[in-house]
Amino acid sequence: MLSDRLYMRETEPRGRASILVWLICAIVATFILQNAFLRLLNLGNSMEWLFGLSPAALRAGRVWTVLTYSFLHSPYSLLNIICNVLALYFLGRELLPLLGTKRFAWLYVAAVAGGGLVWAATHWHTTDTLIGASAGVMALLIVFACFYPNQQMTFLLFFIVPVTVKPKYLALGVAGLDLFAFVFYEILGKPSPIDMAPSAHLGGMAVGWVYFRFVHDAEWRLLNRRVSMELPRWMKRRQRMAAAPARQISSGNRDEFRAEVDRILDKITSQGFGSLTGEEKRILDEARELLSKR
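Structure (tokenized):
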């Protein structure tokens, strides 16, 4: 994985927290506020009413709930927020260097909104309320599985039993479970044995797959033919003005080599790993070899 490479770590400028840290802090802070409103101020579930997603909220014009619901979690279940935060952290730290800050943020926002809209359409005639960051987490899982389908990953099942599985099988298993629950419980209106929102999960997964398939490489593929299309400005990778012609840089000149590595790491932070040229990747590999010899 990219995080296993020494030169891929600490790509954020020192002293500046990454968007992943801010996102996790916002989720945890909101959870603390929920408990304070419920247990200390005796205001009940007022935060869920104001920021949770529900058909009634959308009909009342509270459109912000399509995004804000993802920061809320059940104050009665500590396990739910722990699982979401841990998954968000471990998946996010691998994908953030690949996607870059802006694309990571847009992917997460689109997944949350997509999952929320699919859930709202499914529950339009109910009084249910959706909270939780699962839709965004599911999108990250799908994108991670697309990048590293055969990379062995180990996690603790029920925080006790170590399980090693390939991401592609994990993603397929989770998608299959959500699809089953969506068809046989959510569509039929039957109570699920597990407190989950499969429609929101599936919506987030769909956004993740669409991002990897059509957006990340900045090309659209139709009928097995590559068709170049103009993407919105915010989706484009930024190009340096008057880019200098490619030049061969050797590790012999340490100062020049170190400056070039720093420039490449900054480029990864802002534009993602996929924006690197072949020469830039060669320089990073050479830097890794030098660090491994120390």
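The two ends are 21 Å apart (CA to CA). The beta strands are 153-157, 161-165, 220-222, 225-227.
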